[in-house]
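Z., the sequence and structure:
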Amino acid sequence: VQLQASGGGLVQAGGSLGLSCTASGLTFRSYHMAWFRQAPGQERELVAASRRSGGEPYYTDSVKGRFTVSRDNAKNTMYLQMSGLKFEDTAVYYCANSQNVQWRVAEWYNIWGQGTQVTVSS
């Protein structure tokens, strides 16, 4: 299994950035997919999750209204569109997958790859 996150970069506060997560070696549509992030000195946190069956995504409170997660099962790709970026959004962003019914629970996700760095300048 490979999940490759890309699209990170440096952006000014208030700006926008889009991330992509491309999957291989798995049946993408069979998995819940999620974005995690980890800032320096902080624990890794679940940012957003997309249920395999569709429906309303999950967002952590700090990104609600600013981030949008989506997926294209035909392309084996998940996206995270981020707007209104804040300094505190600075982190390495990782993509992850899960088949557990508790799709909003971070512990049930497997995180893959090196992630992509998002840096927001204040």
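DSSP finds no helices and ten strands in the chain. The first strand starts at residue 2 and ends at 6.

Let me know what you think.
H.
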